[in-house]
Amino acid sequence: MSNIGGVRPHTLQPLDLDCLRSAALETNLIVTVEEHYVVGGLGSAVLEGLSELGISAPVIRIGIPHLFPIIGPTNQLRVHYGLCADNIVRKVKAFSEI
Question: For the chain, what is the total number of helices (H) and then of strands (E)?
Answer without folding.
Answer: 4, 2
